[in-house]
Amino acid sequence: MDSIGVNEQTPREIVEELNKYIVGQDEAKRSVAIALRNRWRSRQLTGSMQDDVIPKNILMIGSTGVGKTEIARRLARLVKAPFIKVEATKFTEVGYVGRDVESIVRDLAETAVRMVRQQRMEDVQEKAKEMAEERILDVFVPEPKKSQNPLGRLFGNDEEDSSEEKKEEPKYQAGREWVRKRLKNGELEEELIEIDVEESSKPMVGMFSGSSLEGMGDNLQDMIGSLMPKRHKKRKVTVAAARKIFAQEEAAKLIDMDEVAEEAVRVAEKSGIVFLDEIDKVAVKGNTSGADVSREGVQRDILPIVEGSTVVTKYGPVKTDHVLFIAAGAFHTAKPSDLIPELQGRFPIRVELKSLRKEDFEKILTEPQNALLKQYKALLAVEGVELDFKESAISRIAELACDVNEQAEDIGARRLHTLLEKLIEDVSFDAPDMEDKNVTIDAAYVDEKLSDIAQNRDLSQYIL
Asked: What is the C-alpha to C-alpha distance for residues 8 and 213, in angstroms, rounded to an integer?
């Protein structure tokens, strides 16, 4: 299995993967691909040079719905590295009510631990499956109880006991091997058995969430959790389900969580990626007063984490010097220059994402692997309805999306969701009762359903 944090894809391969889901925005894709490849290159360096080369953070600028968040989402699936996406608007300056920015690093550490633990559990899966099978056999063929003869033990007369055990063992072994054979052949998979499951007692979640005491709250929860005794409960499940439950339990026993935490901290430090969305919402224009003071404070709090500092997490201190930060914002009302100068300097790579044109909308509807038209076709095919979108219909939907975006707010590709939902509304409603299950959608059909809304601006403000 590939080790976590090592991304050996070339920039071209990364861009090709992103192209499957995101239309256009080649500049942003290239920047992200180069940043990831530079990560790999810096790992090949030796000595102090490896420490000196820090990632160049990226600032993506573009209006809503052009693909900023989608690039982040797809990147998360693509990279084998700890990745978190956070909104800058969730954080407040220390001293105000709300999450403090250090929780970004704590969340990154959690993600890294989850990834490393998952990988370790997969490594011991074979051994865990064997142990799980033994536990299932114990349920079907319980081990014979050793005869307890306290008087015999007292007088040293336990020869009888040992002879009894010897007599019982072959019978016990034979029964066990017979059940093992049936288990191997899959004959008992649907049998119901009663198993004893370990249930860890969980203290109240989020005791301190939303305050700067969050880290302390996490540690306190862990401490209470370790003090509480493990509870066991009986469950009736099929053999197939018991196999999964036991395999999970046994795998968890086989891995050393201290080692996992140690490796996770190292992976988070060297390979962590943080996508900081809505960064423009904490930018401040002109003089600061009222709530703006807090927003500027958030920028000042983000600064040390982006430039490199050490944050104490429950898994140990995490240094953020080599974490890659990708910030994104629409910057409609504010400009990147409204961010405090120190923060601007920490995002040397600026990428502008372009607004979408009619041709882009046409591609978005049809080309990506999760294209909207493919989604609607698949959804309605469940009820036997076959949707056929003609070229003229696709062109007309794209044209309407452009028009409405120009007249009202430009919300990019998200406009297609509202248009298509309205377009397919009648078919979606009538699908279970339709006799003719073939529906052809052409330009005339689109005009009939959507033209009134697109032309009547007052109405489109409410619907689209």
From this structure: 39
